């Protein structure tokens, strides 16, 4: 996306306080909920789907580390760095934008949820799309960052289900 796109989008969001608050609140609430849900999912898997617990733990853990290392070496700038725009919330992180770790995390958790219950997996895929959209709308990630996060989660999920 171009500088004009991000500038116009963020100008619009900043001028519509309700939309701004919805985007910021949704993004933060989904992130917190995902952390809590991931712990509950791991606990449930440990006690009720014991034969899959270790593979779920290893695949999600190793792939999270791999995405973090990839981000470190690529060190892509964030939209607010590249275009000198003001994101919807105070974000100080420099670089490490590609791929989006928030997006990766929620989608790998969604794919892991399918092991427990298909409806939970589908629900988390939907929630993941909302989170990915908020990362873009808040001006902290490019579309390519969230798409790459999703693709990394898909690749990791292949190992989860093999």
Task: Give structural notes.
The protein has 162 residues and is an all-alpha fold. Helices cover 80% and strands 0% of the residues. The protein contains seven helices and no strands. Helix 3 (50-74) packs antiparallel against helix 7 (143-161). The longest helix has 32 residues, at 17-48. The protein is globular. The mean pLDDT is 94.
Write the layout of secondary structure elements.
Layout: H1 3-15, H2 17-48, H3 50-74, H4 79-82, H5 101-116, H6 118-137, H7 143-161
Helix pairs in contact: 2-3, 2-5, 2-6, 3-5, 3-7, 5-6, 5-7
Percent in strands: under 5%
Which structural class do the helices and strands define? mainly alpha
Poorly predicted tracts of residues: none
Through-space gap between termini: 36 Å
Oligomer: single chain
> What does the radius of gyration come to?
16 Å
Provide a concise account of the structure shown:
With 162 residues, the protein is mostly helical. Helices cover 80% and strands 0% of the residues.
């Amino acid at each position: 996306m171009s500088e004009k796109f991000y500038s116009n989008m963020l100008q619009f969001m900043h001028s519509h306080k309700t939309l701004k608050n919805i985007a910021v609140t949704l993004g933060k609430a989904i992130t917190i909920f995902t952390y809590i849900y991931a712990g509950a999912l791991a606990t449930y898997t440990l006690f009720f789907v014991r034969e899959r617990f270790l593979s779920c733990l290893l695949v999600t853990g190793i792939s999270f580390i791999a995405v973090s290392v990839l981000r470190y070496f690529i060190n892509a700038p964030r939209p607010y760095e590249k275009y000198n725009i003001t994101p919807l919330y105070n974000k100080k992180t420099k670089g490490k934008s590609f791929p989006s770790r928030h997006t990766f995390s929620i989608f790998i958790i969604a794919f892991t949820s399918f092991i427990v219950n298909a409806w939970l997996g589908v629900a988390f895929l939907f929630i993941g799309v909302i989170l990915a959209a908020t990362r873009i709308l808040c001006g902290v990630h490019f579309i390519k960052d969230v798409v790459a996060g999703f693709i990394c989660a898909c690749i990791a999920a292949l190992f989860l289900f093999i």
